[in-house]
């Protein structure tokens, strides 16, 4: 059941009661499970033939089967690019189904936010520079460690940063910030890009959901759903705030290592 609570307020806006709605989501969960099963099976089945196909294309391009005309190179390059794209979609789908089914073993360790963020900034510095985008950080000095699988959270940052850069025009800014509260540290990736229309905000983390892509923009609508699965596997939350034409802020929160370790010890 999925519970929802709506407060009842009197004329002075004081709460006088609450309406509780319980929605039976069994059939939706069954459909989701079926969908996940189909996606996972199809992805596995496609992986092996695609690997052979890519190998053949790469060997042909390296002229291992004889010299090529320029027209043949042109066609093979197009085939290579599309098969690379298909490979990336399949890898993302397989990652997603492995995380959803709990098959990815998360290695939770105390991780210092500064190092983790600076590593991301380093790996995106060139991409941002090539697109004419300023990449900044706003971090307080005394951020506590979070309990995280650093490699997996690296994927979350990479997906958010590559989107922020992709959907922001040259001259714009992308900022990574982090702040701590009592229980968690919240990380934000904000941009001054095109923003997300309000009517799409609650669908943005769905698998395959994309807003009309502009000329030359590639993507498959999986990056944000992968980010959400990873953050939720950490017991964390992810949310978005956005204004069309002004920019977006994606924020995810992870548990502080000091609080989590203390509460684990006291149980
Ligand atoms: P992809 O970028 O591969 O299409 P994602 O799941 O990462 O897939 O994102 C889904 C959609 O959300 C994108 O197609 C894009 O329309 C929108 N989106 C994501 N991040 C941003 C952003 N920072 N600014 C504007 N739109 C975004």
TrEMBL record:
Chief place of localization: membrane
Residue span, Histidine kinase domain: 41-258
Keyword Nuclease appears in the UniProt entry: no
Q: Does the keyword ATP-binding apply?
A: yes
Highest taxon, organism lineage? Bacteria
Q: Which GO terms label this protein's molecular function in UniProt?
A: ATP binding; phosphorelay response regulator activity; phosphorelay sensor kinase activity; protein kinase activator activity
GO BP: osmosensory signaling via phosphorelay pathway; regulation of DNA-templated transcription
Q: Which UniProt keywords apply?
A: ATP-binding, Cell membrane, Kinase, Membrane, Nucleotide-binding, Phosphoprotein, Transferase, Transmembrane, Transmembrane helix, Two-component regulatory system
Give the subcellular location. Answer: Cell membrane; Membrane
Q: Name one GO cellular component term.
A: plasma membrane
Q: How is this protein named in the record?
A: histidine kinase
Q: Which organism is it from?
A: Desulforhabdus amnigena
Covered residues, full protein: 348 to 614 of 614
């Amino acid at each position: 059941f999925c519970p929802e609570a709506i407060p009842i307020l009197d004329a002075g806006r004081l709460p006088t009661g609450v309406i509780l709605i319980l929605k039976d989501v069994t059939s939706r969960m069954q459909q989701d499970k079926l969908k996940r099963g189909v996606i996972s099976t199809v992805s596995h089945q496609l992986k092996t033939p695609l690997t052979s196909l890519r190998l053949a294309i790469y060997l042909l391009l390296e002229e291992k089967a004889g010299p090529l005309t320029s027209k043949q190179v042109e066609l093979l390059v197009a085939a290579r690019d599309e098969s690379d794209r298909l490979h990336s979609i399949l890898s993302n789908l397989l990652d997603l189904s492995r995380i959803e089914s709990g098959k990815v073993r998360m290695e939770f360790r105390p991780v210092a936010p500064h190092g983790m963020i600076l590593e991301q900034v380093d790996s995106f510095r060139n991409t941002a520079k090539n697109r004419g985008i300023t990449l900044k950080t706003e971090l307080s000095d005394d951020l506590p460690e979070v309990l995280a699988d650093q490699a997996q959270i690296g994927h979350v940052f990479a997906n958010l940063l590559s989107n922020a850069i992709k959907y922001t025009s040259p001259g714009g800014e992308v900022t990574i910030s982090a702040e701590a509260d009592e229980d968690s540290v919240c990380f934000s990736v904000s941009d001054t890009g095109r923003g997300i229309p309000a009517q799409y905000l609650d669908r943005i983390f769905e698998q395959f959901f994309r807003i009309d892509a502009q000329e030359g923009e590639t993507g498959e609508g999986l990056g944000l759903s992968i980010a959400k699965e990873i953050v939720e596997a950490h017991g964390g939350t992810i949310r978005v705030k956005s204004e069309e034409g002004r920019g977006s802020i994606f924020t995810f929160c992870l548990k502080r290592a000091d609080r989590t370790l203390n509460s684990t010890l006291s149980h």
